[in-house]
Amino acid sequence: MDLVTEITILVLAAFVGFEVISKVPTTLHTPLMSQTNAIHGIVVLGGLIVVGFADAPLDYIIGFIAIVFGTINIVGGFMVTDRMLEMFGGRKQKPKEEESPDGEESG
Amino acid sequence: MSAPALAALAPDSAPVGLLYILSFSLFIYGVRLGTHPTTARRGNGIAAVGMAIAVATTLALQGIGNWGIIIGGLVVGTVIGVVASRRVQMTEMPQMVALYNGLGGGAIALIAWAEYRHWIVEGFAVPADEMVPTLLAMVVGSISFWGSNVAFGKLQELIPSQPLKVPGQQIVNALLLGGLIVGCVYLGASADNGTLNETIFIVMLVAAALLGTLVVLPIGGADMPVVISLLNAFTGLSAAAAGIALNNTALIVAGTLVGSSGTILTLEMATAMNRSVGNILFAGFGSPPESAGGGGEDRPYRSMNAQDAAIQLAYADSVVVVPGYGLAVAQAQHAVKEMADALEAKGVNVNYAIHPVAGRMPGHMNVLLAEADVPYEQLKEMEEINPELPQTDVCVVIGANDVTNPAAKTDESSPIYGMPIIEVDEAQQVLVLKRSMSPGFAGIDNDLFYHPKTAMVFGDAKQTVSDIVAELGDL
Lengths: 107, 475
Known about the structure:
The complex is a heterodimer of chains A (107) and B (475). Chain A has 107 residues and is mainly alpha-helical.
């Protein structure tokens, strides 16, 4: 993909982001922040690619730490957001939720 | 280790591109559902599904190896993430978000470093359109990692949360920033002839770490919501830069989405405090307490015990609770809800006034009160509640300070002058629950405490509210 295409995607995504996120009410800003926080954990893809194609010991170590960091970011971020939003969603008095909202273990 | 059979998708093939499009569409849809409390939880789940698709797609790429390290990393990360998110208290949410944000930034910086090392090993010329985004991702990711860690340390009170001022810190920061820009230009320009220099790269990684630490260290705890939000935007943008370097659309779109979100929240909070983002980052706000309202040390004020406070509340028609960070610190949200229930049982109308920057995160109070099962409809935003305050019998200020300070409206010399506040002083009676008369986080004296219609109820917020609940039961 050439650079201009990538910048095009980036600019369009920025407009979509501004449009969607301006509609989130202040009340939900903490979960929003926590959820977008989880979404940037997508950098774990970079870690997977780096480790997947690496062949030097230091790269293994760097990549391993990157994958651990990214995975904590994703799993922790989505789960904590879920805990918060569970409290917002009306009066449903559920027992402890067991389903984890992430599919990370699929590796 | 050999790759499993599923690892068969060519990196630039159409299926990979389509799966990434599906994944980022789910992110956007997930955030879109976050606009309403009843759908937000489903939205979060949908975004998580998008993430799972993106990860699975990447794992299925042709040629991916080193499965032991990959699976090990995923498992370790998942275990830590699950345990940490189960254990964290709702009051600790701001530092949790800061920590996760830092981890994301750290991952980006490390990935950029590994990518750079990969080029050195390969020994071929790196095009500038991959080199520049990689350098950006490294610098911004490293700033975000260390800045977030400092923010975490301050919120967790591992390091002093007061604003710190060191002479010459602006100059040091400017030199670091200048050095980083020079380094980026040098490495970017030298990329073409294959003279890659890892030492300079690592020096830059360290310089960015120092810059992130030094910029956040002087900022007071009360301004942390803005800092966390800004660092969140930074991490998002560095993820997008990494996406450009790795030619990965899912990373570009997801990173930009986070960048937009962080930017919007940062600007909204700055507006709510009537300050510019630059002022928040560089002014070391709150350090000059002597400049703020009223000189007299021992001005007269009225104090009241829990019993009298309970009587005053019980005979009111309408009560508005104004929560602040003190409520979070005292974990008083459940006690407050009990108080509201007791009052409602006596026919008192109870609402909550939420200032946009109350607490240490935007919407922090909403999360705490939602945890205590306070109905969503009773949480009023500042613009909504202010016109109703003159008709309100009693305002109960619990652990909030600066967001109620009338000096923001009247005293031009006050550091918070111009910040929109919850106009508690308009109500008929005010009860302020506070530990002592000491000024709040920003170190600004609050005229509200000395107002004739204000009564101070001293003590730990949770204990005081519980005492009031007990007294209400006896009435």
